């Protein structure tokens, strides 16, 4: 199977089987999503979802969050990974939203990456989830799954993988393909032992092909 054929097969499969794939983070508006995505670095969405209601209740806007002190916010974040840095990032991010963006979340990758705690991956998530922009966030799941399937070839960095993926995936599906690959990596093509026997795309998977020849 050629790489192009793998893409076609996999896109068809997910369009049929996961047409409404979306983020598992719970949020109501771009500000809440940005907070949740910053908190989700090196942490499960499940744990983030347990943490965010109290944060959103106490700090419903960027303006309110910008006035939080470290000691006020830290206890709400204590149970997730890297609470020190994330507390600082959230307050810094909120301050910058207020100072530079009138308290609103900007919707370009170049503006978003100026915010504390926001790298290219986070900026791609925000713009693709909120605005359906054709930006592919490559996290550890997307990176691993894409390489295993054979969607990416010899990509050594997330940016290299991102460039290959957006070259082959139709523009209007990129925002969705991100969730397809993440969820597949989270529940089926898991890091230690992929569940190939129950995988619906094994016919198009390079890893599976090699295992069986
Ligand atoms: S066949 Fe196995 S390695 Fe390939 S995508 Fe499915 S679970 Fe992952």
From TrEMBL:
Keywords: 4Fe-4S, DNA damage, DNA repair, DNA-binding, Endonuclease, Glycosidase, Hydrolase, Iron, Iron-sulfur, Lyase, Metal-binding, Nuclease
Binding site for [4Fe-4S] cluster: 189, 196, 199, 205
One of the GO BP terms on file: base-excision repair, AP site formation
Names of required cofactors: [4Fe-4S] cluster
EC numbers on record: 4.2.99.18
One term of GO molecular function: class I DNA-(apurinic or apyrimidinic site) endonuclease activity
Gene3D superfamilies the UniProt entry points to: Helix-hairpin-Helix base-excision DNA repair enzymes (C-terminal), Hypothetical protein, domain 2
Cofactor note: Binds 1 [4Fe-4S] cluster.
Signal peptide: none
Swiss-Prot/TrEMBL catalytic activity: 2'-deoxyribonucleotide-(2'-deoxyribose 5'-phosphate)-2'-deoxyribonucleotide-DNA = a 3'-end 2'-deoxyribonucleotide-(2,3-dehydro-2,3-deoxyribose 5'-phosphate)-DNA + a 5'-end 5'-phospho-2'-deoxyribonucleoside-DNA + H(+)
Superkingdom of the source species: Bacteria
Ranges for domain HhH-GPD: 39-187
Role this protein plays: DNA repair enzyme that has both DNA N-glycosylase activity and AP-lyase activity. The DNA N-glycosylase activity releases various damaged pyrimidines from DNA by cleaving the N-glycosidic bond, leaving an AP (apurinic/apyrimidinic) site. The AP-lyase activity cleaves the phosphodiester bond 3' to the AP site by a beta-elimination, leaving a 3'-terminal unsaturated sugar and a product with a terminal 5'-phosphate.
Record family assignment: Belongs to the Nth/MutY family.
Name of this protein: Endonuclease III
Organism expressing this protein natively: Arachidicoccus soli
């Amino acid at each position: 199977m050629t790489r192009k054929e793998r893409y076609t097969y996999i896109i068809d499969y997910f369009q049929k089987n996961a047409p409404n794939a979306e983020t598992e983070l719970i949020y109501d508006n771009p500000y809440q999503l940005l907070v949740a995505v910053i908190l989700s670095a090196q942490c499960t969405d499940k744990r983030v979802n347990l943490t965010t209601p109290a944060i959103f209740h106490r700090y419903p806007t960027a303006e309110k969050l910008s006035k939080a002190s470290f000691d006020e916010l830290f206890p709400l974040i204590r149970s997730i990974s890297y609470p020190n840095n994330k507390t600082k990032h959230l307050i810094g991010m909120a301050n910058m939203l207020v100072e530079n963006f009138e308290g609103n979340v900007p919707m370009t990758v170049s503006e978003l990456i100026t915010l504390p705690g926001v790298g290219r991956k986070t900026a791609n998530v925000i713009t693709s989830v909120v605005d359906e922009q054709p930006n592919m966030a490559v996290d550890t799941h997307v990176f691993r799954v894409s390489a295993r399937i054979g969607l990416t070839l010899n990509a050594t960095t997330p940016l290299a993988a991102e460039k290959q993926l957006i070259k082959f995936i139709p523009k209007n599906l990129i925002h969705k393909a991100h969730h397809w690959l993440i969820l597949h990596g989270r529940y089926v093509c898991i890091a230690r032992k992929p569940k190939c026997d129950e995988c619906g795309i094994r016919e198009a998977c390079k890893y599976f092909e090699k295992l069986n020849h």
